[in-house]
Every structure is written in structure tokens, then in C-alpha cells.
Amino acid sequence: MAVATLKAALPVVALRKLHRAQLAMAPAETDLMKEKPKSNFDKSLDKMLSDAWGETKSDFSFGSPLDKITSTAKLLGKGTFFLGVKTVQNLPDIAKRAAEIQAKKAKK
Predict the structure, then answer these.
(1) Within 10 Å of residue 68's Cβ, how many Cβ atoms?
(2) Which of 4, 14, 80, 93 is 20 to 30 A from 107 via CA?
(3) Is residue 18's pLDDT more than 90?
(4) Would you put residue 64 in left (φ > 0), alpha (ψ -120 to 50) or beta?
(5) Is the model's pLDDT at 80 over the cut of 60?
(6) In this structure, what are the phi and psi dihedrals at residue 24, rounded to the nearest 5 degrees?
(7) What DSSP character marks residue 39?
(8) Is it the case that residue 16 has pLDDT exceeding 50?
(9) Average pLDDT for residues 19-44, to the nearest whole number?
């Protein structure tokens, strides 16, 4: 069951790739995003998630079953928090894009 739970956490990586692909489709926005340096908060979020991933990998290699369950639960919790924060950070862009799409549909 713990392996299935770990596989459920892997979509975080897929979401990151999807986000990068979406940014590649909008070159003007990508240039703006590259100019902005990462804030300390974003750096700490990235570190938190990478630490949780490292702990989970280590526990699955050498840990007891209880360690595996605990580290998987931590990874899922931190991954959910990470996705929530990133979603909230991207809400203004999402709302802007939705308005543009609705305007295009209204013109058709």
C-alpha cells in the first residue's frame, strides 16, 4: 500500500513538467518569469519538497515499515501544501487567461 501511495505523489513532477510546457507556449510571459528572481519563500518550498522526497527514498531503501508509512505521509502532506501554494500563486495568471479565452469565444 505504501508503494501505491508513493506513486500517487509522483504527479508533482508531472505537474511541474506540464507547467514548464505551458510557459514555453507563452514566450512573453516566460521572459517575465525568468527575470523575476525566486523569493526565499519559493526556495524554502522547493527545499522542503526535495528534503521530503529524499527522506522518503532513504526510508524506502533502508527504513522499517513504520518509517516508510511516516515518510510517505509527510511527502504527501508537503506535496499537497506545495501544490496548493503554487496554485494560489498562479491564480491571477489563471484568471487572466480564462478571461482572454472567454473573450475569444464570445467573438466567435
Answers:
(1) 20
(2) 93
(3) no
(4) beta
(5) yes
(6) -65, -25
(7) P
(8) yes
(9) 63
Cα separation of 20 and 7, whole Å? 21
CA angle at residue 43 from 69 to 21, to 5 degrees? Answer: 85
**Beta-carbon count within 10 A of 107 CB:** 6
DSSP annotation of 10 reads T
pLDDT interval class at 1 (50, 70, 90): very low
| Cα-based distances in Å from 5 to 19, 51, 69, 71 | 23, 18, 9, 11
What pTM was computed for the model?
0.55
Per the CB < 8 A criterion, the answer to whether 11 and 82 are in contact is no
Beta strands in 64-108 (DSSP E): none
Written as one string, the DSSP assignment of 28-41 is HHHHHHHHSPPPHH
pLDDT of residue 42: 86
Are the beta carbons of 60 and 6 closer than 8 angstroms? yes
